[in-house]
Amino acid sequence: MYLKSLTLKGFKSFADRTSMSFDPGLNVVVGPNGSGKSNVSDAILWVLGEQSAKMLRGQAMEDVIFSGSSARPAVGVAEVTLVLDNSDHTLPIDFSEVGITRRMYRSGESEYLINGAPARLMDVQDILHDSGLGKDTHSIISQGKLDSILQSRPEERRELIEEAADISKHRRRKERSLRK
Ligand code: ATP
Ligand code: MG
User: Fold this and answer.
1) Strand order in the sheet with 117-119
2) What's the confidence (pLDDT) of residue 160?
3) Quick check: is 63 in a domain?
4) Which residues of the sequence carry a binding annotation for ATP (predicted)?
5) Beta bridge partners of 117
6) Residue 67's pLDDT is what?
7) Does any domain span residue 115?
8) Under DSSP, is residue 1 helix (H, G, I), strand (E, B) or coil?
9) pLDDT tens digit string along 112-123?
10) 102 near 112, Cβ under 8 Å?
């Protein structure tokens, strides 16, 4: 499985629809300061279900929506689609390509789509979790994260180890069933 493409529209500095494609192996995004490189990694986190505005370097979730520039007005909706190549069937879904879309309106209304069909955040999380992707699976390591791991408390470090050992999904499922 690998990240095949990413399309942003109205997300942070990407007012216009912008698509980028990636190849298997290492891909590098380069550009001048402030050109939107970190916004690209924010978009990946966001479409994978990130719920914390702070993790996306904002104050409120609405900050992901293009807020206008001297050249153009703000937009009302942010949308990101990420396409994963699943021809090796890493993801437990019967498609060789999996597109995940997240959309958010200024009203706060939010929706997810999996291959174009409406889905819940929980569905997105379930598809991604066993693959080692997803928001808490350390597939994205931001600046400062390594420091916080080194300085973390034993309980926090345990969570990391459980994640790596693939145990945490069972804990998540147990907690979910206890809530019902
Ligand atoms: P550096 O090399 O300094 O890390 P970068 O390429 O990672 O830079 P980003 O942090 O991705 O740059 O982009 C910053 C730009 O995105 C800023 O100009 C900021 O104003 C713009 N930006 C962030 N959120 C929004 C938004 N909601 N609407 C419009 N522009 C935004
Ligand atoms: Mg940056």
Assistant:
1) 18-21, 2-9, 77-85, 97-105, 110-114, 117-119
2) 79
3) yes
4) 32-39
5) 114
6) 98
7) yes
8) coil
9) 999 999 999 999
10) yes
Q: Are 168 and 159 in contact (CB under 8 A)?
A: yes
Residue 26: the pLDDT is: 95
Ligand 1 mutation pick, 20, 29, 37, 39, max ligand atoms within 8 A of CB: 39
pLDDT, residue 116, reads 97
ipTM above 0.95, yes or no: yes
138 in a domain, yes or no? no
Query: Are 147 and 116 contained in the same domain?
Result: no
**Domain count within the chain:** 2
Residues of the chain with pLDDT under 70: 134-139, 143
What is the C-alpha to C-alpha distance for residues 83 and 71, in angstroms, rounded to an integer? 31
Q: Is the CB of 13 under 6 A from ligand 1?
A: yes
In a domain, 136, yes or no: no
